[in-house]
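Hi support team,

I've been running sequence recovery on a batch of backbones for a student project. Most finish fine, but this one hangs at about 90% for roughly twenty minutes before it completes. I'm not sure whether the input is malformed or the queue is just slow. I've pasted the structure tokens below so you can try to reproduce it. Let me know if you need the job ID as well.

Thanks,
M.K.
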């Protein structure tokens, strides 16, 4: 029943966001590059002009240069790559949360999306893991700042999902196979579960829950060793014994 607005960065992404927005009855789209203060000013001014107040914010953006997302973290992470990944993927939430808080009703809510690479080493995730760690820490500080107004601020740590953000990742197919084999539920993450968690955290259902990094990953994050009946499959996967799976 909520009225929704969506932001996109540039024409190329507008083409993808428009039909998704339309599918939930929204034609309110705003061009907004989070590294551009003027565009952030304009986007939030447009929201205030249209609605006056808002009830929730969803932050679901990240970016690191492609060359930062492969190989050795210590060798490949440049100052510029680090800065832009942290700016786009972590600071953007601080900036959007501040702006949103100024037009948000008390008892509102905010959700951001994160990934396990912030807590554990995931090959090739590299500087994005550092950015997600900063994002999660920022989320906790924002939760404390806005808590007295009844505004809940949380992160959803989703397992890998086949989206545009996961496309073009070198080890992609292995990642999905490995996560399926090694998770508690022995399944990949269904985006419906992520949506359900967001609905909970953004609604009255999520009352009193704030500052939390909530994992929606088929229980991958709680497993210390792969289930015995999956161990052979994982060993095959890792040793490349199954060329068909590559
Ligand atoms: O947060 C992410 C990925 C976000 C992302 C994706 C790209 C692809 C295109 C950030 N920057 C870029 N830059 C590009 O040029 N995920 C949680 C998905 C993801 O990405 C990985 C993963 C997983 C999972 C990269 C390496 C290893 C695992």
């Amino acid at each position: 029943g909520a009225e929704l607005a969506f932001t996109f960065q540039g024409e190329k992404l507008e083409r993808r966001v428009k039909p998704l927005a339309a599918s939930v009855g929204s034609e309110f789209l705003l061009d907004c590059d989070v590294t551009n203060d003027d565009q952030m000013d304009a986007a939030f001014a447009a929201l205030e002009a249209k609605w006056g107040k808002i009830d929730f914010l969803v932050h679901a953006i990240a970016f690191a240069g492609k060359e930062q997302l492969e190989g050795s973290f210590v060798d490949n992470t440049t100052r510029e790559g680090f800065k832009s990944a942290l700016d786009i993927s972590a600071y953007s939430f601080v900036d959007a949360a501040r702006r949103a808080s100024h037009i948000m009703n008390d008892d509102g809510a905010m959700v951001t999306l994160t990934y396990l690479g912030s807590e554990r080493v995931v090959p090739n995730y590299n500087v994005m893991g550092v950015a997600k760690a900063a994002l999660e820490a920022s989320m906790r500080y924002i939760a404390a700042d806005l808590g007295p107004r009844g505004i809940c601020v949380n992160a959803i740590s989703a397992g890998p999902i086949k989206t545009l953000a996961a496309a073009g990742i070198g080890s992609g197919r292995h990642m999905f196979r490995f996560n399926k084999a090694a998770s508690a539920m022995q399944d990949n993450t269904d985006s419906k579960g992520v949506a359900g968690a967001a609905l909970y955290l953004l609604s009255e259902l999520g009352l009193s829950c704030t500052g939390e990094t909530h994992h929606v990953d088929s229980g991958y994050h709680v497993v210390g060793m792969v289930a015995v009946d999956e161990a052979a499959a994982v060993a095959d996967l890792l040793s490349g014994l199954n060329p068909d799976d590559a």
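--
Follow-up from support: It reproduced on our side and the slowdown came from queue contention, not your input. The pocket of 0WE is lined by residues 62-64, 66, 69, 115, 122, 124-125, 128, 160, 165-166, 168-169, 175 (CB under 6 Å). No action needed from you.
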